[in-house]
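Just scan my protein:

——
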Amino acid sequence: MLHSIDLSVIIPVYNVEKYLPHCLESVLIQADNNIEVIAINDGSIDKSPEILDQYATQYPSLKIINQPNQGVSAARQKGITVAHGKYILFLDADDFLEASSLSILYKKAIEADADMVLMDYYTYNPDDQKKTYIQQISIHQYSQASLLKQMFCAERAWAVWSYIAKKELHETIKYNLVSDLSIGEDAVYTTQIVLAAHKITSINKPLINYVSRPDSVTQQKNISDRQFSSYLKFPQRIYDLLYPSYLYPELKESIAYVFLRACYETFYFHHFKNAATIARLAYRQQQVIKSKKLLNNFGKWFYKAIRYYHIHPFLGNLYIKKCLKRGKI
């Protein structure tokens, strides 16, 4: 008879030999008979596989699955299919947990009879080993709309590592909506989790450390064509998930914010290929609402850029170059 598992920690691993030992140690030291740790080696070509094997000999709670490189979404999906835990936590292989975080999260989930438990986090700089506590707006019990509104308006992280959720919620995910994304996949994934959850609560403690790596996507000055394509896709997928829902009237302003934020970030990264296309998307969503609150979240130059792109790409590019020269961006 299979022993009951309370919590499964799923760790996608791809070429993270520098960070992997710290990540594994932070998890495995907490793993008792009721916790399983599943590492998905997603075709690593560095020393990550050897590190995993070394830890597996010491910790029987660690299970290793090897597969050809398919990307982080496919690795997480594979982990879900083999997990036995009542709840699931995703952990990136370059991040690490605080002491006793797994027992704290599970205890809260059981006490609240929650489908989903959110947590605060630290950002961690590996160069100077400095931690910064990211304390987020927290309420005892969330509705679906209140949580999505916070996430869409950047008041709470939508990262998949920022919560635990019941396995049955993960089993409702449409992976085709996230598998081709390199930016925004967490936003689309977590939106689906929230839509499937009935009871959502939070812990006002930092239980995980998000490691700020200089080579991560969020630290890059330029974005690839695939990443740019994701900026075009992920806000629309959130819109498509929510538009048929009874939640849409309450969330339409914050959904527009997601479109505008994606547009802003493409400008920020100084990547102008197809900028007119995403500007038109943002312009259309801007017209959904006329809220002063939303418009005040961005500089005047940004809205002028959207209007110029809406008229003609040449004018938009010309205006952006002018802003760059004047140091507005």
Q: What stands out?
A: The chain has a mean pLDDT of 89. The beta strands are 5-13, 35-42, 62-67, 85-90, 96-97, 116-125, 130-134, 141-142, 163-166, 200-211. Residues 248-268 form the longest helix (21 residues).
